[in-house]
Structures are given as structure tokens and as C-alpha cells.
Amino acid sequence: MLVQVEKYKKMRDGKYKVSFSNGKEMDLYEEVILKYELLLKKEIDTKKILGMIDYNQECDAYYAALKYLKTRLRSYKEVFDLLKKKEYPLTIITKVLDRLLEQGYLNDSQYASSFLHEQLLTTSRGPNKICYELTKKGISQDIILEVISSYSDEMELEKIRKIVNKMVKSNRNRSTLMLKRKIEQDLLQQGFHRHNIQTVMEEVSISSSEEIRKREYDKLYRKLSSKYSGEALEYQLKQKMYQKGFCYED
Predict the structure, then answer these.
(1) Which of 56, 121, 181, 241 could cross-link with 246 by S-S, CB 3.0 to 4.6 Å?
(2) Any idea which of 12-21, 148-157, 228-237 has the lowest mean pLDDT?
(3) Separation of alpha carbons 26 and 158, rounded Å
(4) 127, 136, 76: which is closest to 100 by C-alpha?
(5) Is the distance from CB of 221 to CB of 237 less than 8 angstroms?
(6) What 8-state DSSP symbol labels residue 5?
(7) For residue 105, which phi and psi values (nearest 5 degrees)?
(8) Whole-angstrom distance, CA of residue 220 vs CA of residue 211
């Protein structure tokens, strides 16, 4: 069956509403019109219309990906996941991703380098955490190893020192023992290497403040004295203070 193009109406986002002689209308991207040379009164068969529909959907997926890439760099996997979520067919997703790769809009090596730079400037994450995040974003291990090599031991040690000094200065209620444990635990969770954490912890002098110890003692005394007295109270105070990492003193 042959149909003719009757008229065009320009719409937003680079689309045209195309009316056909059989009364049907299609919203087509300009690329589709150019590729299939849809001139007025031109006759089009059913097979060509099916091809136009497929290519129009490909254009739609392509522009959805470009919009996603407009705000910042994305990994190959991130764009794939977006298009899959929008329920485009896998064949179209593959074509769009290949097109974006060819045009340079997708580049996992460039993305990984940019991600590392951003993390170093704006977060307190160590190399292990950054590698983990890059893995989640679908970056290959070869690229990750290449990029993370620029996160030197000197850079890591300096970042750890800043975090440790900040935590020591802001300490309000922890004993030396508990503060050290807290710092080490937080740094490990943030992805720093254990040997570099230990190096910095050996450099830093952390002393318990008598003011902190007295404040914690007074807080426990107020809480426990309503329940205990005499030796029982002393025992409870001693236990709780030890649990908090403080030496017990009357």
C-alpha cells in the first residue's frame, strides 16, 4: 500500500508532525525526514514506513542520551541503564551507544579520570572507595587501575592527616582509645589503605582531655545515682567509664 505525504507542521525538539494521505499522522525527527527524503506528495510504501518508525525511535533514544549527558560526563553503563529504564529495544540501545562512542560523547577512560579528580576535590574518600564506586558505574578494572595509580601514597597520607586532625579537634566526648578506634574505623570505611592509616595514627598525638573525662563521669553519675548507691554505684560507674575508654577516678 502506498501513501503520500500531505503536509508538515513544525513542533518542538526538532520534530515535525507529518500528515499522510490515508489520514495518519506521525511525529518525526528532522533526521528521519532527511534520511527518507519525505518530500510533499512523495509516495511511501509500508516497508519504508516501518523503517521510519524504527529510525525515529533510535533518534528519540539518542536525544534522550544526549540530554542525560548534558549536565555531566556519564559512563557507558549509566547511559545504557538509562535507555534500558526507558524501555528502548536492545538493538536501538546498542546503535545509540555505538554512535555516542564514535562521536566521543562516551569515553570511560575520560569519565574515570574526571570522576577521580572530582572525588579528590570534593570528598573524603580514599582510593579503595573510589575504585568501588567506579566498579559500580561499570568501569573496567584495567581503566580503574590505570586511573587510580595517580592517587599517590603522598596524596592519600595528606588527606588522611587532614581528616584525623579535624576529628581530633572536634572531639567532645570520646576517650583517646575510643577516638582512635572511631578514626580508624571511619577511614577504613572511606576506603583508605590500612598501612597509610597506621602511619598517620603513629604521627598524631591524641591525649584525653580531663574536661571530657569529668563531663562523661558527671553524666554517668547523674544517670546511675538514681538507681544505685554505695559500692554498687561505684561498680557501675567504673564499668561504664571503662567501656567508654576512660580510667575510673572518684
Answers:
(1) 241
(2) 228-237
(3) 60
(4) 76
(5) yes
(6) E
(7) -75, -25
(8) 14
d(CA 96, CA 102): 10
Average pLDDT score over residue span 85-97: 97
Strand order in the sheet with 43-45: 25-29, 15-20, 2-10, 43-45
pLDDT tens digits along 156-210: 999 999 999 888 887 766 677 778 888 999 999 999 999 999 999 988 776 566 6
Specify the 3-state DSSP secondary structure of 7.
strand
For the chain, helix (H) and strand (E) counts, in that order, are 12, 4
In the block, cell 568501588 appears at 132
DSSP assignment letter at 12? S
Cell of 133: 564506586
Residues 6+ apart with CB under 8 A from 109: 143, 146, 147
3-state class of 86 per DSSP? coil
Q: How far apart are CA 161 and CA 14, in angstroms?
A: 53
Q: Indicate the helix (H) or strand (E) that contains 68.
A: helix 46-70
Indicate yes or no: pTM above 0.85: no
How long, in residues, is the chain?
A: 250
Cell of 246: 576512660
